[in-house]
Amino acid sequence: MQDLIVTVIQADLRWQSPEYNRSVFEEKINALKHPTHLVVLPEMFTTGFTMEADKWAEEMSGATVEWMKSTAQKHRLDLTGSLIIRERNKFFNRLIWVKPTGELFSYDKRHLFRMAGEHKVYGAGKKLLTVELNDWRIRPFICYDLRFPVWCRNVNLA
Fold this sequence. Notes:
By secondary structure, the protein is α/β, with parallel strands linked by helices. The chain has one domain: Nitrilase/N-carbamoyl-D-aminoacid amidohydrolase (4-Layer Sandwich). 25% of the residues lie in helices and 23% in strands. It is built from 5 helices and 7 strands. It has helices spanning 18-30, 53-56, 63-75, 118-121, 149-153, and strands at residues 6-8, 38-40, 78-87, 90-98, 104-108, 131-133, 136-138. The protein has a 5-stranded mixed beta sheet with strand order 1-2-3-4-5. Strands 6-7 form a two-stranded antiparallel sheet. Helix 1 (18-30) packs parallel to helix 3. The longest helix is centred in the first third of the chain and has 13 residues, at 18-30.
């Protein structure tokens, strides 16, 4: 099995400011000094964890997904993070995974955090995602989903 170099980037997000937050992450990715195969960005990296989905949701053809595609291609790496996506008049906390070729994968957060009212705003995902990178099979999750290990390891949902 090949080595897999993963870079996790955390930043002090500016609340509900997608353009600013994308620029911060772009600077951080541009400043990487060592090669990496995968860059992981935070949950809702463009807005922070907001319940104002109607104001901040993007389409899959929106600015952030396009930025992710161009960034992955420019740096020849896989890039992943979640943002608010509007689809069929519903909102999803969606993890987007982009390969340097432009190939796109997505996963919608399944277990919504009821204590924050997330289930009142966002739709729950139904499918797991498994992505291959350097002979590794990676199954990404978003935050609270990790609290449900039986569901997370269920291979029949992929």
